[in-house]
Amino acid sequence: MRVGGSDPIREAARLLVDRRNAVALTGAGISVESGIPSFRGAQGMWGKYDPMEYATLHAFMKSPRKVWEMLSEMVSVCGGAAPNAAHKGLAALEEMGVVRAVITQNVDGLHQAAGSRRVIEYHGNMEELLCVYCWKRYTTRERWAPGAVPLCDCGEVLKPNVVLFGDPIPWLAQEQAEEEARSCGTLVVIGTSAQVSPACDIPRIAKESGAAVVEINPEETSLSRNVTDIHLQGSASEVLRLLMEELSRGG
Ligand code: APR
Questions:
Q1: Which of 47, 90, 126, 131 is 20 to 30 A from 157 in CA distance terms?
Q2: What DSSP designation does 195 have?
Q3: Is the CB of 193 inside a 6 Å radius of any atom of ligand 1?
Q4: Could you tell me the pTM of the whole model?
Q5: Hey, whose CA ends up nearest to atom 14 of ligand 1?
């Protein structure tokens, strides 16, 4: 662990307690330990699927069946995953009254599965499908099968209710996320490379509103030297375990 004084875990725990009203912002890194690959970096999804060909709204409208090659992999990987110690740690911090909300870029539903109650799904959720022609909605469970492309009753190919590049952020999620960022005491940023906007603006909004920013990531990101106050350099589950220990010691 580095950046900050001699004991950044203790410092971070102190920030969480003293400043109260912590909010978490999570990215793909928090679900890596649940077996869901991240997007960038080694083994990332975008190394296998060019996002410009498989993850834009334009690509979906042009060749939905091709885009479903990538989406099917995401549905099966997310469907088979379980929350890990980091997801459970955040849910426990909510129970303890330390963290009041989780803003997630992930579409895997693992925060809710771990017991987190206030979860803002900034990029939507994989468990719902919608028809972009007649706006009918279905659960992925009822319409998706491995290797098949899910169709609406109107015959069109269904789209998961996730934000593809070129899609707008669900306005309520954006409103709520920015409100949480503007009014939190500490923003804990976990497992995101902070390369995709507008999600990567949330730490800046929090910082400009007076919050402290704690980053949990084994790597440095664009935030680490500009926005982050304490960078806890390690895996989400390990760092949250140490933080919980420190908090329970009354740190
Ligand atoms: N614990 C914590 N962080 C981790 C771990 C781990 N075990 N493993 C990897 N990371 C970090 C990586 O170092 C990287 O900085 O998680 C980050 C993952 O970054 P990305 O793959 O870029 O994922 P994310 O930031 O969530 O992507 C944002 O981009 O592709 C779109 O819509 C997609 O929501 C996604 C958005």
A1: 47
A2: -
A3: yes
A4: 0.96
A5: 193
DSSP state for residue 151 in the 8-state scheme: B
The enclosing H or E element of 28 equals: none
Q: How many CB atoms lie within 10 A of CB 90?
A: 28
The answer, yes or no, to whether any atom of ligand 1 lies below 6 A from the CB of 196, is yes
**Extended strands (E) in 131-203:** 137-139, 159-162, 186-190
* Encoded amino acid at 100, one letter: R
Q: Which residues pair with 219 in a beta bridge?
A: none
- The string of pLDDT tens digits covering residues 125-144 is 999 999 999 999 999 999 99
Of 31, 32, 108, 169, the residue with max ligand 1 atoms within 8 A of its CB, to mutate for a pocket test, comes to: 32
Cα separation, 224 vs 78, in Å, equals 29
As a whole number of angstroms, the distance between CA 250 and CA 110 comes to 28
